[in-house]
Design a protein that fits this description.
By secondary structure, the protein is mainly alpha-helical. Helices cover 62% and strands 4% of the residues. It has 3 domains: 131 residues, no CATH class; 72 residues; 77 residues, no CATH class. The strands form 2 sheets. Strands 1-2 form a two-stranded antiparallel sheet. It has a two-stranded antiparallel sheet with strand order 3-4. It starts with a helix and ends with a helix. Keywords: Membrane, Transmembrane, Transmembrane helix.
Length: 304
């Protein structure tokens, strides 16, 4: 079987794309003696996949391996439990009190061997525990990010089928240190990409450096921080609107029932928006809603 046929068998096709393709802006970005290639200019396979992952922090997705971490913790735990049981049994059966009272003169070689290996076993157990803890504190990628990475891999097929299956697993984590995106950030990104005309959203969120990182017109790489900044501006305007609109209504409403209903629906709307568009904790939602309600109540009391 030829190597071309082997590639086709594994879901790959022969990549005949030249790594020095020409374009209107030239091949890659020159920085002194180093040239940064476009994503598509890297050799097909792990080099191109690595270039794609490195092009945007949100593309850094890996498996969590929760099951294997749990197995490792349980395995190390039982080894320590076995050592603990053996030590207790040796201590109970020990006939010479001097051996139990002196580490230096302990003549029980089996107990000495167990205690010598105890430090290493405890160290490995603690490593497994904290590794398990760190992995589970890393955030999961958003569904949009996972879809973007999976769509790119389906299009370019950088890996053989068996090695590309990791992206379809359910135990994925994000290595993006700034991955604090909530539903509101995804809504803002969707609005910017789909609603704004003339490709204005892409120009707004990208920069000259990110635009030349790829020649794929369907792949949009944004400048880090611009989407978060736009999201903060939008949420600031929404918060201001949520404060001013009820105040204007309350100012023009003079009956107690209508004011009461305005306060109730305003508080419910505020709580729902915070709950659905952010990753705020329960206590944070409670505190923010209480503060918002207090502002409206104070306004009603002063304007009465």
């Amino acid at each position: 079987m030829s190597w071309e046929a082997g590639l086709e068998q594994w879901g790959l096709e022969n990549d005949t794309t030249s790594t020095s393709k020409s374009s209107g802006r030239g091949s890659g970005i020159a920085h002194g003696s180093c040239v940064e290639l476009e994503v598509e200019e890297h050799k097909r396979g792990y080099p191109r996949l690595a270039a794609f992952v490195a092009s945007d922090p949100s593309f850094a997705i890996a498996r969590r391996f929760s099951y294997l971490h749990a197995r490792n913790v349980l395995y190390r735990q039982d080894r320590l439990a076995d050592i603990e049981a053996q030590l207790q049994e040796l201590d109970e059966k020990e006939q010479t009190q001097w051996y139990l009272s002196s580490r230096r003169d302990d003549g029980n070689s089996l107990r000495t061997q167990l205690l010598s290996s105890l430090g290493d076993e405890l160290h490995e157990y603690e490593k497994a525990l904290f590794s398990h803890l760190r992995v589970h504190t890393l955030p999961s990628p958003s569904s949009r990010t996972k879809e973007n990475v999976q769509s790119w891999m389906d299009q370019y097929k950088p890996l053989v089928k068996s090695e590309a299956e990791f992206i379809s697993q359910s135990d994925l984590l994000s290595l993006d240190a700034t991955e604090d995106r909530g539903r509101f950030d995804e809504i803002i990104e969707w609005v910017v990409e789909r609603v704004l005309p003339w490709n204005l959203g892409y120009r707004l969120l990208s920069s000259k450096e990110t635009r030349v990182m790829t020649s794929d017109q369907n792949m949009h790489i944004y400048k880090p921080g611009r989407l978060r900044m736009l999201s903060r501006v939008a949420i600031t305007l929404i918060v201001v609107a949520l404060l001013l609109v009820p105040m204007l209504v309350l100012y023009n409403v003079h009956t107690s029932l209508r004011r009461f209903l305005t306060i109730i629906f305003s508080i419910l709307g505020f709580a729902l928006i915070v709950c659905l568009t952010t990753k705020a904790k329960k206590v944070e939602i409670f505190a923010a809603t209480a503060a918002y309600g207090a502002v409206l109540v104070v306004f009603v009391a002063q304007s009465a």
